[in-house]
From TrEMBL:
It comes from Muricomes intestini. SUPFAM superfamilies: Glyceraldehyde-3-phosphate dehydrogenase-like, C-terminal domain, NAD(P)-binding Rossmann-fold domains. It comes from the Bacteria. Residues 135-320 form the Gfo/Idh/MocA-like oxidoreductase C-terminal domain. It holds the Pfam family GFO_IDH_MocA_C. One of its GO terms (molecular function) is nucleotide binding. Belongs to the Gfo/Idh/MocA family. Gene3D superfamilies: Dihydrodipicolinate Reductase, domain 2 (3.30.360.10), NAD(P)-binding Rossmann-like Domain (3.40.50.720). This is Myo-inositol 2-dehydrogenase. PANTHER family: INOSITOL 2-DEHYDROGENASE, PTHR43593. Residues 2-123 form the Gfo/Idh/MocA-like oxidoreductase N-terminal domain.
Length: 334
């Protein structure tokens, strides 16, 4: 039984608590905390969690907590991850791992000091059956080398306080991880473009943006990023290979024929799109972290996505591709 403490009881935190308590028999959520203590208390009552901690640091320090799940606000992730790793605890951290590459490097240095990976980053798309099948086909070599990826990440709306840079660090970060995973390749250069703006872009942030990436092997990736599309939550991905193309399937949906129209309902909430992936991801983390050997996306993967996001955000308005700068990969992650 893996005893887990959760830092952050917002939307994704409660989703994960729900999964851990209802679907995963080998997991026990023993404690929780939140920036808003009332939220933590309510969550504890709802899920029968016995301890509510005043701070994330208190939760991490308690010897009762074997593994820490971090689902707090993006800017708070790095401090909690670092502290938990310092104490040698298993960590699951929602994306992004950190806001800066400097913070990712501190986490990596701490894992190197322990001589083992302790962190799994919440890049759940790697567990999505659609993406997994795409990867299987690419890895089989049956379609030849992958040459390009065309992807779209479209959200219906964003909460108050959303900023242009978050389009990369909070939203397109999923593509920054999944594209290099699909291609087994690393990023060389990155550029973000501001294109004709949607009339729905009234809140001061860029929408849409186009993300362009070039890999070490010369593959090209373009990602259309809409953070307020007004019609649905729509994730598309096409990999163009030498002998054919592979497309991410849309989620299953009933096809309705009525009023001389054939229609398929689209999702609107991102939390509903990758539910199977989240289920598999958490089960996998509990199995592997319980045995002290997490096998999912590592701090290094979190770092690479952060380095690419950094280059993209720095490139905005320059009209240039910028190099994705990274430290040498420690042997630990090979
Ligand atoms: C959210 O955290 C996600 O993970 C979604 O995939 C993304 O579309 C959304 O914009 C993020 O806030």
């Amino acid at each position: 039984m893996l005893k887990i403490g959760i830092i952050g009881c917002g939307a994704i935190g409660r989703e994960h608590i729900n999964r851990l308590t209802r679907l995963i028999p080998d997991a026990e959520v023993v404690g929780c905390t939140d920036y808003y203590l009332e939220t933590a208390k309510k969550t504890a009552v709802q899920y029968g969690i016995r301890t509510v901690y005043k701070t994330g640091e208190d939760l991490i320090a308690d010897s009762e907590v074997e593994a820490v799940m971090i689902t707090s606000s993006d800017p708070s992730h790095a401090t909690y991850v670092l502290e938990a790793v310092r104490l040698g605890k298993q960590v699951f951290c929602e994306k992004p791992l950190a806001q800066t590459t400097a913070d990712c490097e501190k986490i990596i240095a701490e894992e190197v000091r322990h001589n083992k990976p302790l962190v799994q980053v919440g890049f759940m798309r790697r567990y999505d059956p659609g993406y997994m099948e795409m990867k299987r086909i690419i890895d089989s070599g049956s379609l030849g080398a992958p040459l390009m990826i065309h992807a779209c990440h479209r959200n219906v709306f964003q909460p108050e306080g959303f900023q242009t840079e978050m389009g990369i660090t909070n939203v397109a970060i999923h593509e920054l991880d999944i594209c290099r995973w699909l291609l087994r390749d690393e990023y060389k250069n990155a550029q973000v473009l501001k294109v004709r703006q949607s009339s729905r872009s009234t809140k001061g942030y860029d929408n849409p943006q186009i993300v362009l990436l070039e890999t070490e092997n010369g593959s090209r990736i373009d990602i259309e990023l809409q953070v307020a599309d007004g019609y649905g939550y729509d994730i598309q991905c096409q990999v163009v290979c030498e002998k054919g193309t592979i497309n991410l399937p849309d989620p299953n949906s009933v096809i309705k024929r009525a009023d001389a129209t054939c229609s398929v309902q689209l999702l609107t909430d991102w939390a509903d799109r990758f539910t199977t992936a989240y289920d598999i991801e958490l089960q996998d983390w509990v199995n592997c972290a319980g045995e002290g050997r997490p096998t999912g996306p590592t701090s290094w993967d979190g770092y690479v996505a952060c380095a690419a996001a950094d280059a993209l955000n720095r490139s905005r308005g320059t009209g240039k591709f910028l190099a994705v700068e990274m430290i040498e990969k420690p042997a630990l992650y090979s």
